[in-house]
## 1
Amino acid sequence: MSQATSEQDAGKTWRSDFVASVVVFLVALPLCMGIAIASGAPPAAGLITGIIGGLVVGWIAGSPLQVSGPAAGLSVIVWDLIQTHGFAALGAIVLIAGLIQVVAGAFRLGQWFRAVSPAVIQGMLAGIGVLIFASQFHVMVDDSPVKSGLVNLATIPAAIWKGIMPMDGSVHQQAALIGLLTIVGIIVWQFMPRRARVLPAPLIAVVVGTVAAHFMAPEIRRIDVPANLLSAVQLPSLTGVEATWATLLLAALALAVVASAETLLCATAVDQMHRGPRTKYDRELIAQGVGNMACGLVGGLPMTGVIVRSSANVDAGGKTRMSAILHGGWLLIFVALLPGVLQLIPTAALAALLVYTGYKLVNIQAIRNLKQYGSGEVFVYAATLGGVVAIDLLSGVLIGLGLALLKLLYTFSHLDIEIREEGDKVTLDLYGTATMLRLPKLAGVLEKVPASCELHVRMDHLQYIDHACLNLLADWERQHHATGGRLVIDWEELRAKFQTPAPGDAAAKKARAA
């Protein structure tokens, strides 16, 4: 390749990354602040994390086109941590969680964080979506949510009533109107011509809500953003925190596990969107750990790779890591030079954006996809969702993981046998998995087979058969043959399906040895 051609390609890449970075910045700006509000943290904390996600993680990320920042999926955990230990302690917890991620990446554990059942992940995201929807619905009418997700969910009708009655133009009604206009703006913008949709729907919706609030709802709450971002920097401190180190370490470990799983699953999804370099999972895990350590040091929220911003990056034509890096630069420049613009944004508009985000997290299509793999997957999904909403996120995930493990054990220990007799011919149909755990059951059925008959064993619907069961069939064949009977098994088909040599096939062994 000539130098001129290389420079042309670099120029095209730079232009694509520049355009993509602007689009990602416009998507990230309202989401960073909205997720901070949903987490019970100052909006500036979300902006700090978005900046670090671009300017720090972007340089060293193992998934070049993935964009990192504050994630809706962590907002429930962060909310609980702040309510339990205080915002000052959050920095120390995030710092420790980042250190855990760095160590895990250094020990090449990146792939292990992906070893989570899709039903558990989808159930976790749906549960988070329900909690975000329920809590931010109250914020959307300029009210305050409570800690309990079930109470927030149950009191949504009261919030709706507060936003409607009495018709006296109260602050609650003004906020509800702005929230409604914001959601309508998101939905309508998705039907605009493709060229117009270069500007992201969340940004347009927040702009609509802000302009409408200026003329129609002057009394509702606005975003509290400091005029100087440095004033929002807060070093980690445990002063006044009553929790033990063991409690903080456990909280950091839970945060690290959830953040890592969400990041690496997001990276896998991003890989499917483009044909560029594939994700280096251990490097990505280390990059996320470095980013979270930086966030913990300066008072930011914890970060993950985020699918909304990452997909916007790919769709807008991002080619290299520069698009993610530049988006962090735009965030820093905007917050440093135009904080007054952010202070005009009504809280109700950002809450409405999160209400819509929570609704989207409850992905109905995901349930349909899981149903293709059996009702057990849907049950694990529902149990995880219910646990997250009714108890807390960690408990819901543990419930889901426990049920997924029980389902796996059931799958690898379940064997159904159907017997059909037609004169001197007997057919056994095997379903499930034939392992040593089910060897007594298979042996018991074989003992009932009449002597001198011709037994056909069909394994078309068998998912797995182990060496112990194959040896049982081989031993039983010799005994049955001595009584004048015959065992018929398509050994070639069995080898093709399970890549297992036929037991007792001496001729085949000699042929392979020759």
## 2
Amino acid sequence: MSTNTIIVLVAFVIYMGMMILIGALNSKNSNNEDYFLGGRGLSSWTAALSAQASDMSGWLLMGLPGAIYLAGSGEMWIAIGLLIGTVLNWMLVARRLRKYTIVANNSLTIPSFFENRFKDKKGVLKVVASIVIIVFFAVYTASAFSAGAKLFANVFGKGADDNTAYMVGLIVAAVVILVYTLLGGFKAVCYTDFIQGMLMLIAILAVPILAYFVTVQGDAGSVSKAVAQHGVENPAGFFSLVKNADGSPITWQSVISGLGWGLGYFGMPHILVRFMAIKSDKEVKKSRTIAIIWVILSLGAACLLGLIARGYLSETLTESNSETVFIRCIQQLFDGNFVLVFIGGIFLCGILAAIMSTADSQLLVTASSVSEDMYKGTIKKDASEKSALLVGRIAVVVVAIIAFVIAIDPNSSVMKLVSDAWAGFGAAFGPVILLSLFWKRFNLAGAVAGMVVGFVTIVIWDYIPFFEEGATIGAKTGVYSLVVGFALALIVAVIVTLVTKAPSKEIETEFEKVKKVEI
């Protein structure tokens, strides 16, 4: 092991040790509300950075820059869609969801909110929602584990094709995330997310700026000329939002699919629970401003990184290793004395921060769903707080094992895994959340129908090979499944609601109460 590798390893050990320590310091959870929502006491800064750090994951520092590195600015439509979705989610959903979950019998999870919102005494909607959470969070957590494994393979191994280093990285990432999630619960996750959100922002801002100055001061003299020297035949197309790197026009499917990513925000449980946990309405307003600024800076920097790296890196990456673009830039920038290498190691921890901040949140939401909604809410309604917490922690371990198995393949794409999970949650939960918050007439039948249709559409669109050579509908049409799934779920939910019985007077009164209450 080289001296540089040892220095970077030291930085990693210090960072991961800090995260575990935070988990240990926040290990006192007297009940499920403490463990799963931190007692609804998040401050504006913690809520904002925790929500956005848990949102972006390793995808921000690996998947998105990698896609832009290969295809150019045309991939930035995804970032634009995510920015729009973030703003709308904080503007429309945050305050109202927080109020409604308190009024609706102090709901601690998204499935329990659905049950309380519609007075679903049979628990049908809660069970369906819990199944959706378990299925798609297993896939989502797998993307984080895969990103962590690729980080270790490239930093401590021989590269993306080093299977041994990949497996070691996979084990380390899974174990560290499990330990502090199991120890501390929601508070530990949010406090670590706050630190990780700050580190992610510093790293993603610093690296493209430094790479830019190095590039323009080099022989090429400009980024445009530099990318031309690194295999881009049409630099104008590479830097255009409406053209591909080869000069061909961007298709309408690409634009709609990219913007469609923004629809996913309305259905992301690990983001929505942050809204539910903010301690006051006043803090929501502060959080909104902080979160939007963070997203603008981080998404913009991630896009710039992908573009600048194409001209900066001394090697040309391919589709198989393009998601390591951020890692390669750091290694090339911070190569020299002890101080430079250690700083580079801290910046590489930014990737680890992105990975951990999302995976821990997903595991915790899964635990809350299994513990509160399936075990205590359906299987054993008289279960004690202690036994429910134990079941939740067991669920964390089980889902982590499933995610580990999914991520074992070194060729698994972080971008693809995130895309699938994002579509699943966005289509199944997004329309139901929006209609629940803003339509008094919305009823249980419509909610169940919308959720099921959204879930099934994603499965059919993305996973079932209808065409030759195993091609799915999504691969054949080029249209992101979330766009189709969200639209169909919304339409079906509205139609079924209108043709079935209106909700009870109690439900309508509670809906009106949310608009008036100040919490």
## 3
Amino acid sequence: MARQKKETRASAQRRKHWQDRLAAARAAYASELEAMEQNDALYAGARECATPGGGTAARKSSNVRNIVYELVESQVDPTVPMPRVEAVHEGDEALAKAVEALLRHKAQLLHFSEMNDVQERTTPVLGASFWQVDWDARAGFHCTLGDVSVTDRHPRQIIPQPGVSELEKMDYVFVLVSKSKRELARRYGVDSDALDGEEPGARGPEAKPTDELVTQIIAYYRNRRGGVGMFSWAGEATLADEPECQARLEEVCARCGAPVRGGVCTVCGSDKTVLRARGCQTLSHDVALYGGGTARRGERVPDYDPGRFPLVVRRNVSRFGSLLGTSDAAVVRDQQEAIKKLGTKIDEKVLKGGSFVTLPDGVRVETTDRELKILRVKNPADKALIDVLNVQPDVSKDRAVLEENYQWAKSTLGITDAFQGKYDSSAISGTAKEFSANQAAGRLQSKREQKNAAYARLYEMMFRFLLAYADQPVPYAERAADGSQRFSPFDRWQFLRRDDAGELYWDDEFIFSVDPSATLSSNRSVLWEQMDQKYQSGAFGPAQDVSSRLLYWTLLERLDYPHAGEVKAELEKQAASAAAQQGGETIALPEL
């Protein structure tokens, strides 16, 4: 076990400074954190009922129709928007395509589909979700050191600066991360016994405390030059204090400041060193600049700094003056509470109703399970007094009000029966039903735009981290125009430029968005169906012509249709044989 580092007085004072800031930020954010708990409970189908005054009723619901869960799940979109990168400057088109292909590759490698599945629930329930982008020095392939990493962050893990609603306009922001004590002790060289302060809420709404975990608090802040600094602690142990957490560091002499190699300063002979932001590096080899020119060995090249907080927010619906968006659960909370109470009322009415037997005084009914039961009466008059009363309460009005609240909730969120795939009595034809579904999709388009914008910012952040820290070429694969797979490396030195003043700089000026057609292009089964329709409609020529069939199966082969290559090869053989027999020319496919 590593010994705990001796903490200086200055470090303890800085930790106290950030702890006080966190306490103030939490107090200002308390209402949002409380709303998150309530919205999470609604989505989970909590049985507690709210009173008109906002409190919690003593009586719980016996039957919860969870409309929050139903309406949130109705909107889940499993598709991951793929990146689209456009050049700003002439001559950068090829680089833009290379960046786009690299980011597509990273989206698959980092399993964005799994994170998207979680965020599709978190975002509408709580109003927003987050990604954290970092450079993981321990990741990468065999021949590369490090790789970009993307982590899903729950809104409960982010505590913003009070009064500021945009991340990049904040002076600081806090991130709460649950880590094991042994991991923090190993990484930061502190005593695991000194680590405490586990907050289960950072792991989820229903997490339980455990002695093996601790909450690491990371404060990202703007330093004096406008870059990003980081201070981190757990309990009363300081873990990291990095005023330039995104800068490239170098070892320098603590006495004279000269760069040190081998542990001893060659200028003054001191063996005491410190880490300092490098700022720039000296080229050890010539670099051919993209578009012409050369950066010569020995020239000083500025280090690229991402310069942004490593967080990206994805909002549900924009809300002015708030870091988070509007929560769907909060919008339909009144309807959900009414439905819980009405469901309980209907249960009580139905269960308390039943059949009652009237008997003359003194007459008893046999209560065994025999088919023929004996009932002894004294005279025919007693028999006439025996009767059964069926008491069935009227719940039609309760059910009507319940259904009305359900329709209100759906109308509020813009969800129709046709959008959910249910029977829609208002749509009397297939076209009308399609129109109804499209109308609902149109109302939900704002949420899709928020999702697309968030993914665009995420891809831009990933590019910035790769441009800053990918010292070795990063391999990636892409699909070429002819359907084959092409392997290429991402080399950040291709983005080095020289301006008109002769200064070297890094070109990060690209437009990042998402490609709406990328989802269709990745769904091969849909493309196969469309190919069938186009072939049958004659888009490739007469369906019976060999050239049309060859073109059709060639395209299916490029779309990875099973055994398409074998069918294409057999058709080519048949075409060649027929041409040989007729003494004609073989059929040539048009260039695609």
